[in-house]
Amino acid sequence: MKLVKPYGDTLDDGAMQLSFTLPLEWSEAADEAARALVVKQGFTDVAVVEGRKIAAGFSFFVVYARTPVAIDVSTIAAPRAARDALDMDAVDALIRTRVGRKVRIAGACIGTDAHTVGIDAILNMKGYKGDYGLERYHEFEVFNLGSQIAVEELVRFVKDRRIDALLVSQVVTQKGSDIANFTALAELLEAEDLRDGIVLIAGGPRVTNLLAAELGYDAGFGRGTLPSDVATFIARRMAERVLA
Amino acid sequence: MQLRIDLEAVAQARRFATAIVDPIAEFIAGHSTVAVERSVARLLGIDGVDADGIPLPNRVVDALADPAGGVARALGASIAETGRTPQQVATALVAGTPLSDPAHTPVAAIAGALAPHVTRALETIDARRAERATFLRELPQAPPPLLYVIVASGNIYEDRTAAVAAAQAGAQIIAVIRSTAQSLLDYVPHGATTEGFGGTYATQENFRLMRAALDEVSAQLGRYVMLTNYASGLCMPEIAALAALERLDMLLNDSMYGILFRDINMKRTFVDQHFSRLINARAGIIINTGEDNYLTTADAVEQAPAVLASQFINEAFAHRAGMPDALIGLGDAYEIDPDLEDGFLLQVAQAQLARQCFPAAPLKYMPPTKHMTGDIFRGHLIDAMFNLTSVMTHQTIHLCGMLTEAIHTPFLGDRALALANARYVMGTARHFGDEIELRPGGKIELRARAVLSAAVDLLAGVAGRGLMESIAAKVFADVSRSPDGGRGFDGVIAKSAHYWNPFEDALRPLTAA
Q1: At A107, which helix (H) or strand (E)?
Q2: A113 at the B interface (CB within 8 A)?
């Protein structure tokens, strides 16, 4: 058991910073309302260090407070999909020796999402932060379908082109549209009996590996992911499949 | 602060851009699109939807027996024959009465029947423009950079609350971002809407609701707050028409964005952007072009010449539609990797270069997005450097960067923080750019010269090869699009000898460049 609290300047002081907007005209009473709101959540030593009007009927607050809550980190597990990534040559070599053919990869932003920044960073030859994109790998054949791809269209593509690994990206998360789209895709792949034959990967700034697992995906890659992280995962999973 | 740049190279870039646009202009003159025809129907007063929710302008244009002749002839003939208004012709069509065959009606009768409706549309557009001029005189804006923020809740009523709050916090321009799917819809949705993804549908009623709210807050604040939407995608000219009727002040409108980044057919886009800009020129609407997109999808340092080249092409297309420089808001963005040493110098070079190449244009400067992370504190700092670049290089339209850019569509408090950041930096450094001189032969000047020279080379190459061929050959944004591929190609119409569009006729002479 290892209990941990936020660290301000002293171990276990529990110091946290919060900021939020209240739909209240600013006044001393609004400051007090902000303080009371934070106290009610169990914080102590609550200090409203900034409270001001930002528009008619809206006030903005910055608050420092201490939390009495500690968390036992020995009980926390959050496996990362990206473990010790291989470089491009090593990935290509792994596929050549263990899979023995090119791996066919398709990527798309599904549903109405038009934000291709993430999927492009992973797939485009150029890559991201000096890490080459999947198109540059010799042993990958990559189809970047772009944005606003319907789930049905994507599933048809997977079937027609005998895709090995499918990468889907969701950036817009408004009203849970990302979850709905990810789920719809997984279900349709299942219904078409294609799910077990592919490596299914979710991506996006708000995606975690844990979330992806809950949605029935093989892996989830969030912010900070490099193309080689994804490439390594695909290569290892494909190699395991051939073995199995 | 002035860069010493080769003015002959600037003139050369402009000559190449004109040469690039010339053959496209010829193509444009010979073609219309279903979206242009629907715009004509809307300008003539056709509005509303049928029982299935299909907009009447779509019903009318889809019902044309001879699309190559244009919607105006068929409507004119129907009006001449029945004495109905355009709207009554449309509702009668839905009820089962077909449009009249214009071949059976004399041309003069068609023109005569339509004339009052054409006149009324133009009078409305002119009245809206005059209203804006009055507002700007009585409620003058704060000096540029004009602070521009986005609202995007999906619900027009929530957007209204957010827009009014942003105006009170210092925003001078409000953009209602559209639902992400809208650019690919081949119709304009109808009525007030409360559901959208990543944004709110652009509809005439939503325009009206937001304009009314902003007029109210403008009066309260004593300064006119401008409204922006998106004339892009498959309904580009229809949005321009609605914006002209509802007094929007700016429209995002790019001559190539849809082709490259939304896979919309290039012929469709070229024809649509021209008619949109004819309307914008008449309505006094400032266009914002989309060069920022080159920078978000590829490396910003490498793409700098493509941005400048695209600005020259957008300018040439806009001039072709009769737009004066004062309405051409050419785009750029602050997207260089913050970890690159002296990246700020490169940003200043690019922004100042655009300022000097397009001295009369209301340049649109876009904030960092690509390198923003969940670290909102760092993001707020990067935004401050962007704000400094903007004020010192005299940008005109300044889209405020959000500290939560990488996280969610902005919260109300995020906008207030972003505006406070911009107001602080732009206040404390208001005349900084006027007080400093750039070192001759220094890093900033050399960078600007290199970008200009590379842009001239790029334009020369495109002029030699042809614009459509260059787009096919991946010259822009590393994307290849074929002239007959992409969305909306089936909506391109080759005009027949009988083709008639009274608005094209009315807008052209007034706005000849």
Answers
A1: strand A103-109
A2: yes
Q: Which residues of B touch A145 (CB under 8 A)?
A: none
> Å from A10 to nearest chain B CA?
23
Omega before B338 cis (within 30°)? no
Q: Which of B149, B180, B185, B417 to mutate to test the interface with A (most CBs of A within 10 A)?
A: B180
Number of cross-chain residue pairs from A and B with Cβ atoms under 8 Å apart: 79
Compute the nearest-CA separation of B279 from chain A (Å). 28
Indicate whether A140 and A27 sit together in one domain: no
* Secondary structure tally for chain A: helices H, strands E: 7, 10
Q: Do A60 and B180 touch (CB under 8 A)?
A: no
Query: In this structure, are A163 and A52 located in the same domain?
Result: no
From chain A, the residues in CB contact with B298 under 8 A are 126
For the annotated catalytic residues of B, the residue numbers are 257, 292, 364
Model confidence band, residue B513 (pLDDT cutoffs 50, 70, 90): very low
pLDDT in tens, B366-416: 999 988 988 999 999 999 999 999 999 999 999 999 999 988 889 999 999
* CB-CB neighbors (< 8 A) of B230 in chain A: none
The CA-CA-CA angle for residues B16, B19, B25, to 5°, reads 140
**A36 and A104 together in one domain:** no
Mean pLDDT of B200-204: 96
What torsion, rounded to 10 degrees, do the Cα atoms B85, B91, B95, B96 define?
60
End-to-end CA distance of chain A: 38
Same domain? A216 vs A174:
yes
Last residue of a domain, one of A72, A104, A133: A72
Q: Could you give the number of structural domains in chain A? A: 2
Show the domain range for A19: 3-72
B166 vs A: CB within 8 A: yes
CATH number reported for the structural domain that contains residue A62 in this entry: 3.30.30.60
Displacement of CA B470 from its chain's centroid (Å) = 23
CA distance A99 to chain B (A): 31
Residues of A in contact with B373 (CB under 8 A): 223-224
Q: Does residue A81 lie in a domain region?
A: no
Does A78 reside within a domain?
A: no
State which of A39, A72, A105 marks the end of a domain.
A72
Do residues A223 and A114 share a domain? yes
Same domain? For A56 and A128 the reply is no
Distance of residue B17 Cα from the nearest chain A Cα, in angstroms = 29
Residues 6+ apart with CB under 8 A from A104: A140, A141, A143, A161, A162, A163, A164, A165
Q: A11: exposed, middle or buried (C-beta count within 10 Å: 0-12, 13-18, 19+)?
A: exposed
Which of A1-5, A80-84, A209-213, B468-472 is predicted with the least confidence, judged by mean pLDDT? A80-84
Q: How far apart are CA B31 and CA B295, in angstroms?
A: 32
- Beta-carbon separation of A113 and B180 below 8 A: yes
CA B130 and chain centroid, separation: 21
- Pair of tokens at residue B250: 């700016």
CB of A63 within 8 A of CB of A18?
yes
Q: Are residues A171 and A124 in the same domain?
A: yes
B chain contacts of residue A136, beta-carbon cutoff 8 Å: none
- B136-181, pLDDT tens digit by residue? 999 999 999 999 999 989 999 999 999 999 999 999 999 999 987 7
Q: What is the DSSP string of A178-223?
A: HHHHHHHHHHHHHHTT-GGGSEEEEESTT--HHHHHHTT-SEEE-T
- CA–CA separation, B159 and B177 (whole Å): 10
What is the pLDDT at residue B168? 97
Alpha-carbon span A204 to A222, nearest angstrom: 5
Query: CATH no. for residue A152?
Result: 3.40.50.280
Neighbours of B468 (CB within 10 A): 19
